[in-house]
Design brief:
By secondary structure, the protein is mostly helical. The protein is built from seven helices and no strands. Helix 3 crosses helix 4 and helix 6 packs across helix 7. It is elongated, with a radius of gyration of 25 Å. The two termini are 23 Å apart.
């Protein structure tokens, strides 16, 4: 097992435990602030901004235009930790295998096309089983897999 494969397995195991959470409709800042019973003015004082600045902050979080720095400072002011993670839709190992299958299939298609153009396809049976080519893409050509 190479280092990339080991890293993928470790990350897959770690990320499996993470849940995909949709942010609350009004955003985390507003939701946590309200749950704490904190007013906009009180949060504004903690962040050293105006109360209208908090409304803007909450609005920007809800529409996705807030910066990470501002989100981090708001979390701190609310006594929270900010955690940001990329959670793959499918396991990383599966993503790599899918990409390797695409590359191997494309490579095979080009080879067949070239052989037909050169009239060399008679009597040559290219195996539809791309297992070896896929494995080569994963183990030996990994640095070019996403080109």
């Amino acid at each position: 097992m190479n280092s990339r494969e080991l890293l993928r397995r470790q990350l897959d195991a770690r990320l499996q435990t993470m849940q995909r959470e949709q942010p609350p409709k009004g955003g985390w800042i507003r939701t946590i602030r309200r749950a704490l019973g904190m007013t906009m003015a009180q949060l504004a004082k903690r962040l050293r901004v105006s109360a209208p600045g908090i409304a803007d902050l909450e609005s920007r979080e809800a529409n996705g235009s807030i910066s990470l720095a501002r989100l981090r400072s708001a979390a701190e002011a609310l006594g929270c930790d900010l955690q940001i993670a990329f959670i793959p839709r499918v396991p990383l190992a599966e993503m790599v295998e899918r990409q390797a299958v695409l590359k191997a299939s494309h490579e095979n298609s080009r080879l067949v096309h070239t052989m037909k153009l050169e009239n060399q396809d008679r009597g040559v049976a290219l195996s539809p089983d791309l297992t070896q080519s896929v494995e080569r893409w994963i183990t030996k050509r990994g640095s070019r897999l996403w080109d």
